[in-house]
Design brief:
This protein folds into two domains: about 35 residues, no CATH class; about 130 residues, Nucleoside Triphosphate Pyrophosphohydrolase (Alpha-Beta Complex). About 20% of the residues lie in helices and about 40% in strands. The protein is built from three helices and ten strands; from the N terminus they run βββββββαβββαα.
Length: about 180
């Protein structure tokens, strides 16, 4: 039988405007020596699976210092302080791809990594406008529009390998969201 674990102390150290290191002292059972755990606190994430009117899925590519390489991902970003997740979703889609949201469906909110992060991932499916040929992505970002089959080929060949975004694709498939 599990006993009620409790946080008996918590400290935060700001590392940057986007992340804080959190130290927690945890007591797992009365009288047992507390243990120290660390996690990262950051704003909630927004992740977007969008489909244009012509049936294309936007992907974005950017350099990710954490893994020291360029990665293909779904449009995504951080929630700004006090921002509504759906509004953040619309904003991020427009900023990263130039697409306008026509209809927005929330697929759920999930913990991003229960062992290391305090934040949540808000997942959305968006029916979007077709690409604007005059859109210019922000510096350091590339946008590509692919069909459903090409996206799954990217996954199978290891070129699209962001686990949180793969989870969103699996969720969409399970919810019978048709991408073709």
């Amino acid at each position: 039988m599990l006993t009620a674990a409790r946080i008996i102390a918590r400290e935060e150290l700001a590392l940057s405007p986007w992340v804080r290191l959190v130290t927690k002292e945890v007591e797992f059972a009365p009288g047992e020596e507390p243990r120290i755990y660390h996690c990262l606190a950051q704003p909630d994430y927004i992740t977007i699976l969008a489909r244009t009117r012509s049936g294309l899925i936007p992907l974005v590519r950017q350099f990710r210092p954490a893994v020291e390489e360029y990665t293909w991902e779904l449009p995504a970003g951080l929630l700004e302080d006090g921002e509504d997740p759906e509004e953040a979703c619309r904003r991020e889609l427009k900023e990263e791809t130039g697409l306008d949201a026509i209809s927005v469906t929330k697929l759920g909110s999930f913990w991003s990594d229960t062992g290391r992060h305090e934040n949540r991932l808000h997942a959305y499916f968006i029916e979007a406008s077709d690409p604007d040929p005059s859109f210019v992505p922000e510096t350091g970002m590339e946008v590509r529009f692919v069909g459903h089959g090409e996206l799954w080929q990217e996954v199978q060949e290891g070129r699209f390998n962001h686990q949180l975004h793969l989870g969103l694709l699996a969720l969409a498939q399970r919810m019978r969201i048709v991408l073709d």
